[in-house]
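Deliverable D2.4 — example input (structure tokens):
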């Protein structure tokens, strides 16, 4: 049986070969340029051959004659596909990978936006339907605020609201335009709410540009009349919907009238009519454009622009007033010519309620400023009342302060003496350990002198600033221009009008010393005792004015203090910090350089709920060595310098006197380990408010820091600390700053604090008249005229005795023609040198050439022959009475001392 090879079976669907033969099936093989269909057939990319069949999915062979569309060559056209056969599959979308998977698609974003819009629309509709216009809020009639001492006894109660409503027609058109220019210039054309302004205000608040309001006048009116001043989301939402409804139901004129009658203008005045009387004493209809612009300016922040209550606010108030008037010009409500003729209308002083007389009104004002300034409660909300405020003030100390001021100033004023009309007194006392303000004296009476002298910032602090320069020198390890390390014993040139030297030579600044006295070379200790300007200006230059400024701010002087500029003149106290500011800075020195922000408020409650108070964390402002070294030097000012009247406190004390330019203010700032207190006597015209010099006030040639201010300080401190343990300073001074000055006995017990002592600086211990003496004549503060340059030193009309005990008799008389007034200066308050028998003839110079200050013109030659009682010589200075003092040849200022006095500064350069 023969076996013939079998022919391969052909696929009947394969195209026939020429002559009727079929082409073998290709099978599931991909050829270049082809894509198989669903059944393995060539897809759209298949090539047609001659005589192709219409069953083929290729392009060729469509006419049965072997001709295809492509003619068997070139690119075949797309094949026609039948359903289910030869269909081209769509390419799948590439999957999202990586970070793209986390990003929403545009469809998702669009959907979310639409959903958010629907929700927002729904919420708006619900809010509009649910929030109704309520009746006037219950707080429209303000309650009283109660102010308490720390022990819970009441200081004052305020809160009687001054509110008067008027028709809009009674408000001058210029006043209405001023309000719109200041608050909402588009009021008549805008809608009730301004979303863009609200967003802008929110953004400015978030980005640290301060809390801003995006509210229209309509919204502000809603807040004032229908709601409240709370800063909550709920209140803001209600305000939004009520404003929209109100704008639909009331006219713009009605809304503006309501706004003018409910807005708070300060001074407890609600509404423009009450404000017109509070600031200008006239009906609103009588206000001119300038006055209306000032009242409109107050709406932004009443206490920040009240120039009568806070004179230091004048620059800010002027800027706001000008902004308002310029806005009126922009809106064509005021012509340029009328604008140019405007003069700032100074408001009258306020007429406070009778219940705030005495010190009560000053306390209430200071506490309100503290609460609003620290963000505890805003001004308008506080004015609505209902708060119970416990202060840090202690009743005993508060009364002691008022009594001390009355004894040394108020009781000495003479109604017939013109200069006495200008006298003002301010004071503040702080517990260094806690930072609590325990007492504050604002003025003679809040109903008579409205400005709080304890918190005002418009008087120069004078030489009370100099300790900050010394602290900065120690803190920064500063050196002199010639490379010497600065310590309290570093020698400086105290020549009057000496030009300050910089690293590149003279700076062109040459300050005058008090009364143009030249001191020659002397240590920083002595320069501090005598408050030598030429020395401290050079010291500020050596330390660096910028570092001095930084140290003062760190201690407690506000950075925004006017004239706190980084130049050598900063050392002389041209800055205008308040009494309270300076008390805080000195409290930091007393607390060994640790500072906690001072506090006037212990607790605040409303309706049984306690409000949170700002924390006052204690931090090391300057090193302990810098603070304690400064304290050691300031102790010398009290012990034998210009502040000896402070010895009446009967305790170890440190302090510094100061005098403002033109003698317009006299300061004493000092502290014990337990209490830091600052007192200032200021001169101000009661009619114009202008600062005045204190020459002739209280019947004295001049008032200096070592006189009335130091005497008030001493008496107040003695009373405030009575019954408490007497503590010494525990000092850790910088290397090289130790002082070996240890006089026998207790100097703090040698001056009486009673009324028999001389409270006005007649103590000769104030060696250069820094208490009340005429410095150009009397170098020892012995303010009487006959005892200065005549036959008997110390024989002045009221000159007290030897300075060792207040009110003692003058020392025994001498016979010299000039006595010793131009000779030496006693070290411990002793009387001007007098030997009891024979005086010098040309201006005594005894005291030794090593212990005293080097000679200056007019002080050399011819010292007393014998030493008088308690003479003492040179450096030891403590030889008891009867010794013979050697005549000096170099003109040292120490001279021979009074009874048991000291002739020199032992151990001093």
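Example output (designed residues):
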């Amino acid at each position: 049986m023969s076996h013939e090879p079998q022919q391969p079976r052909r696929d009947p669907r394969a195209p026939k070969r020429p002559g009727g033969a079929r082409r073998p099936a290709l099978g599931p093989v991909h050829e270049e340029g082809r894509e198989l269909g669903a059944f393995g057939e060539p897809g759209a990319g298949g090539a047609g051959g001659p005589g192709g069949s219409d069953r083929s999915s290729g392009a060729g062979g469509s006419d049965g004659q072997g001709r295809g569309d492509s003619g068997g060559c070139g690119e075949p056209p797309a094949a026609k596909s039948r359903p289910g056969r030869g269909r081209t599959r769509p390419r799948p979308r590439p999957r999202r990978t990586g970070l793209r998977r986390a990003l929403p698609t545009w469809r998702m974003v669009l959907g979310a936006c639409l959903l958010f819009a629907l929700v927002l629309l729904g919420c708006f509709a619900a809010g509009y339907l649910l929030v109704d216009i309520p009746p006037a809020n219950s707080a429209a009639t303000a309650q009283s605020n109660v102010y308490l001492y720390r022990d819970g006894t009441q200081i004052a109660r305020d809160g009687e609201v001054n509110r008067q409503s008027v028709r809009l027609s009674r408000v001058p058109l210029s006043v209405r335009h001023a309000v719109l220019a200041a608050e909402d210039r588009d009021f008549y054309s805008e809608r009730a709410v301004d979303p863009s302004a609200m967003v802008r205000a929110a953004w400015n608040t978030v980005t640290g540009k301060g809390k801003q309001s995006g509210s229209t006048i309509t919204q502000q009116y809603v807040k004032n009349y229908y709601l409240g001043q709370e800063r909550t989301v709920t209140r803001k939402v209600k305000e939004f919907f009520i404003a929209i409804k109100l704008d639909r139901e009331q006219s713009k004129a009605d809304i503006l009238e309501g706004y003018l009658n409910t807005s708070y203008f300060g001074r407890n005045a609600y509404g423009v009519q009450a404000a017109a009387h509070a600031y200008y004493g006239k009906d609103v209809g009588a206000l001119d454009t300038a006055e209306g612009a000032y009242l409109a300016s107050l709406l932004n922040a009443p206490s920040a622009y009240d120039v009568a209550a806070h004179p230091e606010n004048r620059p800010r108030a002027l800027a706001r007033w000008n902004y308002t008037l310029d806005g009126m010009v922009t809106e064509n409500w005021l012509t340029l010519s009328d604008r140019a003729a405007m003069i700032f209308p100074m408001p009258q002083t306020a007429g406070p309620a009778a219940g705030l007389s005495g010190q009560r009104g000053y306390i209430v004002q200071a506490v309100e400023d503290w609460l609003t300034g620290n963000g505890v409660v805003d001004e308008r909300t506080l004015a609505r009342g209902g708060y119970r405020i416990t202060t840090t003030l202690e009743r005993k100390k508060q009364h002691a302060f008022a009594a001390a001021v009355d004894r040394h100033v108020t009781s000495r004023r003479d109604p017939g003496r013109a200069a006495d009309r200008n006298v003002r007194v301010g004071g503040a006392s702080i517990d260094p350990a806690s930072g609590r303000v325990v007492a504050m004296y604002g003025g003679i009476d809040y109903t008579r002198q409205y400005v709080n002298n304890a918190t005002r910032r418009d008087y120069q602090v004078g030489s009370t600033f100099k300790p900050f320069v010394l602290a900065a020198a120690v803190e920064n390890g500063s050196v002199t221009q010639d490379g010497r390390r600065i310590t309290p014993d570093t020698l400086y040139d105290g020549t009057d009008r000496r030009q300050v030297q910089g690293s590149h030579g003279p700076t062109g600044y040459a300050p005058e010393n008090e009364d143009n006295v030249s001191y020659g070379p002397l240590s920083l200790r002595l320069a501090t005792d005598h408050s030598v300007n030429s020395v401290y200006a050079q010291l500020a230059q050596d330390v660096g004015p910028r570092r001095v400024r930084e140290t003062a701010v760190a201690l407690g002087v506000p950075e925004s203090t006017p004239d706190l500029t980084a130049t050598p003149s900063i050392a002389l106290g041209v800055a205008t910090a308040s009494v309270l500011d300076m008390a805080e800075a000195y409290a930091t020195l007393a607390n060994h350089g640790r500072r906690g922000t001072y506090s006037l408020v212990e607790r605040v409650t409303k309706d049984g709920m306690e409000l949170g108070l700002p924390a006052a964390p204690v931090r090391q402002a300057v090193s302990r060595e810098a603070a304690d070294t400064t304290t050691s030097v300031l102790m010398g000012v009290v012990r034998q310098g210009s502040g000896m009247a402070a010895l009446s406190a009967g305790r170890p004390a440190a302090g510094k006197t100061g005098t403002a330019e033109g003698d317009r203010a006299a300061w004493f700032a000092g502290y014990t380990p337990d209490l830091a207190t600052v007192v200032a006597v200021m001169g101000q015209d009661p009619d114009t408010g202008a600062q005045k010099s204190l020459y002739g006030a209280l019947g004295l040639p001049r008032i200096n820091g070592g006189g009335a201010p130091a005497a008030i300080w001493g008496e107040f401190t003695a009373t405030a600390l009575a019954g408490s343990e007497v503590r010494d300073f525990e000092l850790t001074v910088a290397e090289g700053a130790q002082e070996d000055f240890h006089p026998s006995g207790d100097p703090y017990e040698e001056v009486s604090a009673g009324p028999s002592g001389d409270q006005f600086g007649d103590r000769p211990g104030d060696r250069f008249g820094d208490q009340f003496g005429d410095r150009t004549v009397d170098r020892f503060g012995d303010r009487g005229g006959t005892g200065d340059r005549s036959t008997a030193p110390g024989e002045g009309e009221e000159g007290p005795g030897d300075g060792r005990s207040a009110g003692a008799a003058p020392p025994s008389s001498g016979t010299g023609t000039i006595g010793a007034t131009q000779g030496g200066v006693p070290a411990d308050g002793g009387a001007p040198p007098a030997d009891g028998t024979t005086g010098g003839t040309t201006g005594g110079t005894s005291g030794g050439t090593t212990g005293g200050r080097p000679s200056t013109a007019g002080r050399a030659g011819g010292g007393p022959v014998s030493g008088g009682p308690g003479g003492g010589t040179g450096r030891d200075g403590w030889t008891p009475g009867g010794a013979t003092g050697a005549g000096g040849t170099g003109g040292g200022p120490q001279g021979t001392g009074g009874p048991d006095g000291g002739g020199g500064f032992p151990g001093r350069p």
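Residues 19-81, 209-213, 741-909 have pLDDT under 50 and may be disordered.
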